[in-house]
């Protein structure tokens, strides 16, 4: 499944970069994320609770920075599993920032997600809807937190 979104944030590029590269800032923006911690430079762990159709689940994920070109590009890999390995997730993600003017930054993110196991059996239409909903909530929360200076 592929996800791609572009949106604008009312903040300078460096401020957006500082926000998106801070797990303490980003984690509260991810729906269902109950925490994120840096285990070593460029490596993080998080727990994410989500609902797909009738299934409520919790994923333990590992995120690793693959590349960073501050303040304009970052790429990450994510892998995780639902308890007892009922579902596995792997993703390659990239985020690009572009300064539109001194107080506006365009953010583009792309993810290619592979889901195996019981959640992988759902149709791509349902999975795409869930991913879009999570993405839209993340964007709104991130914009609000940056705007309010949190």
Structural descriptors:
25% helix; single chain; seven-stranded antiparallel sheet; alpha+beta
Order of helices and strands: EHHEEEEEEH
**Strand order of the main beta sheet, please?**
1-7-6-5-4-3-2
Tertiary shape: globular
Q: Percent helix among the residues?
A: 10-25%
Structural class: alpha+beta
- Ranges where pLDDT stays below 50 over 5 or more residues in a row are none
Number of helices: 3
Cα-to-Cα separation, first versus last residue? 32 Å
Radius of gyration (CA) equals 15 Å
Strand proportion, as a percent range, falls in over 45%
Taking the sheet with the most strands, its summary is: 7 strands, antiparallel
The averaged pLDDT comes out at 91
Number of strands: 7
Structure description:
- The protein has 150 residues and is of the alpha+beta class.
- Helices cover 25% and strands 53% of the residues.
- The protein has helices at 13-20, 23-26, 124-148, and strands spanning 2-9, 33-40, 43-52, 55-69, 73-82, 87-101, 104-117.
- It has a 7-stranded antiparallel beta sheet, covered by helices on one side.
- The longest helix is centred in the last third of the chain and has 25 residues, at 124-148.
- It is globular and about 45 Å long.
- The protein starts with a strand and ends with a helix.
């Amino acid at each position: 499944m592929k996800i791609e979104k572009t949106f604008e944030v009312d903040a300078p590029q460096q401020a957006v970069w500082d926000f998106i590269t801070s797990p303490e800032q980003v984690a509260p923006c991810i729906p269902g994320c109950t925490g994120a911690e840096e285990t070593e430079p460029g490596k993080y762990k998080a727990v994410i609770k989500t609902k797909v159709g009738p299934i409520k689940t919790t994923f333990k994920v590992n995120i690793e920075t693959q590349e960073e070109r501050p303040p304009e590009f970052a790429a990450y890999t994510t892998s995780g599993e639902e308890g007892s390995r009922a579902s596995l997730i792997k993703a390659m993600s990239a985020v690009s920032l572009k300064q539109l003017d001194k107080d506006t930054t365009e953010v583009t993110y792309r993810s290619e997600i592979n889901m195996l196991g019981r959640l992988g059996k759902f149709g791509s239409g349902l999975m795409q809807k869930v991913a879009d909903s999570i993405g839209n909530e993340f964007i709104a929360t991130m914009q609000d937190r940056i705007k309010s200076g949190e």
